[in-house]
């Protein structure tokens, strides 16, 4: 039996209609390319679901992983600690918004959001503001697939069916495609009326990725931050997709000089090597949880693989590499990315092209799924979000690879759309 046959018999894949599943078995990676079991190379146009930063099998990340393997693969972070976890926290707090002071590790973006929600909720309970139990979020928000994260999500297709199971959140109209004034007015109205019952506003900064790369107007994030501050509501910024260079800065918050109460990180934190996530928070939040053990104020949450040392060791190296070379290289190629997209935008069947740094959504009039299937024949892996074809390549992409991405996408669009 081939691997593909065995896969089809045994495995249930995420976000996949298994009745129509056609396995593509990946055997190795090489820079910006994935190589299948038959030796065919494909440009990894979505960075292995938005997490790969420096390409596959980067020698420095491989070495960091091997070196750490020689010392310790895993030991719990409950009751113990270790150097890679401590050093990575130190590095993250050096580069994150300067008001953040504490790192709570976990292992997925969804978990990092749930942790922020729970910490915010518990903070208000501990401070005697026990009516603050609800969350504000944007329409079409996406913060992950676990129930807490789904509760602050707003993508009907993914989330509606689970409605009865969820934390209830209050939707604010997304500002994407507008000047943001109506959304801000609505936030202010909600806060004026019921800030006393709102713990936090949860937001994807600058761009709502899973909704199809919906880009916010400039100044929106900062205005939200100011409103949250004024009405004593936490701001949780979910940088799971935008973090680690995706928007052209290390973190999206930097574009608007915002200092949130929580920042959620995952995906690119290990350059795309291993599952790791972190929820960063302020000293004020952390301090509320301090007391004698018998007071039971501490945060009762943790995962088995929290702060896995292999992942943390790779994370330290990845962050250094990002600052030294990967981010400058991605920024240098951005004008060519913009030029390529201007050409793509003129193709028949393309409704709109949206971009924030290296997060790109190409909205088609239809058939995005078929375009992504077709583009594989031209040597590129892409995934659709509804009718949006996403470009999210590794940040080390070079000009010839960008040319392949553009050529293959254009061919697939021409061949698929009437
Ligand atoms: N938050 C945002 C903004 C995301 O884009 C994602 C995943 O795409 C998540 C959270 C969930 O991350 P994970 O898939 O690691 O749970």
Describe the structure.
This protein is 37% helix and 18% strand. It is an alpha/beta fold and 418 residues long. A seven-stranded mixed beta sheet has the order 4-12-11-10-7-5-6, sandwiched between helices. Pyridoxal-5'-phosphate binds next to helix 5.
List keywords for this structure.
four-stranded mixed β-sheet; 418 residues; single chain; seven-stranded mixed β-sheet; alpha/beta; binds pyridoxal-5'-phosphate; Aspartate Aminotransferase, domain 2
What fold name stands as the CATH topology of the largest domain?
A: Aspartate Aminotransferase, domain 2
Our estimate of the beta-strand percent is: 15-25%
Mean pLDDT: 97
- Which class best fits the helix and strand makeup? alpha/beta
Low-pLDDT sequence parts? none
User: Helix fraction?
Assistant: 25-40%
Number of strands: 17
Q: Outline the biggest β-sheet.
A: 7 strands, mixed
- Quickly count the helices: 13
Rg from Cα:
21 Å
**What is the molecular shape?**
globular
The helix/strand order is: HEEEHHHEHEHHEHEEEHEEEHHEEHEEEH
Assigned CATH architecture of the largest domain: 3-Layer(aba) Sandwich
Order of strands across the biggest sheet?
4-12-11-10-7-5-6
* Gap from first CA to last CA: 39 Å
As for the number of domains, it is 2
CATH class category label of the largest domain: Alpha Beta
> What bound compounds does this protein have?
pyridoxal-5'-phosphate
CATH homologous superfamily name of the largest domain?
A: Type I PLP-dependent aspartate aminotransferase-like (Major domain)
């Amino acid at each position: 039996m081939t691997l593909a046959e065995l896969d089809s018999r045994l495995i249930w894949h995420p976000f996949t209609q298994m009745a129509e599943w056609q396995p593509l078995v990946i055997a190795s990676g090489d820079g910006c390319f994935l190589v299948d079991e038959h030796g065919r190379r494909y440009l990894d146009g979505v960075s292995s679901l938005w997490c790969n930063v420096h390409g596959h099998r980067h020698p420095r990340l491989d070495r960091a992983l091997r070196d750490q393997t020689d010392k310790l693969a895993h030991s719990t972070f409950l009751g113990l600690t270790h150097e890679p976890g401590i050093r990575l926290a130190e590095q993250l707090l050096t580069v994150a918004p300067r008001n953040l002071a504490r790192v709570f590790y976990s292992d997925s973006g969804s978990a990092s959001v749930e942790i922020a929600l729970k910490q915010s909720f518990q903070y208000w309970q501990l401070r005697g503001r026990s009516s603050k139990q609800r969350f504000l979020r944007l329409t079409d928000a996406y913060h992950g697939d676990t129930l807490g994260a789904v509760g602050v999500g707003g993508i009907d297709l993914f989330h509606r069916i689970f409605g009865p199971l969820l934390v209830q959140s209050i939707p604010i109209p997304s500002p994407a495609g507008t000047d943001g004034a109506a959304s801000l007015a609505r936030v202010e109205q909600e806060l004026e009326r019921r800030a006393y019952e709102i713990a936090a506003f949860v937001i994807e900064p600058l761009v709502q990725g899973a909704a199809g790369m919906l880009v916010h107007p400039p100044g929106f994030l900062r205005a939200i931050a100011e409103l949250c501050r004024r009405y004593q509501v936490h701001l949780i910024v979910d940088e799971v997709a935008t973090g680690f260079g995706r928007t052209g800065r290390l973190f999206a918050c930097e574009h608007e000089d915002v200092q949130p109460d929580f920042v959620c990180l995952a995906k690119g934190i290990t350059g795309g090597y291993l599952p790791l996530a972190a929820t960063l928070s302020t000293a004020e939040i952390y301090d509320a949880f301090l007391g004698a053990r018998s007071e039971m104020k501490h945060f009762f949450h943790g995962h088995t693989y929290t702060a896995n040392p292999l992942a943390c060791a790779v994370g330290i190296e990845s962050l250094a590499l990002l600052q030294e070379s990967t981010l400058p290289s991605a920024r240098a190629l951005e004008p060519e990315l913009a030029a390529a997209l201007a050409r793509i935008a003129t193709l028949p069947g393309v409704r709109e092209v949206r971009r924030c740094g290296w997060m790109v959504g190409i909205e088609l009039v239809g058939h995005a799924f078929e375009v992504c299937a077709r583009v594989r024949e031209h040597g590129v892996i892409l995934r659709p979000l509804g009718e949006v074809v996403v470009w999210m390549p590794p940040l080390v992409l070079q000009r010839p690879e960008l040319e392949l991405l553009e050529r293959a996408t254009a061919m697939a669009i021409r061949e698929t759309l009437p």
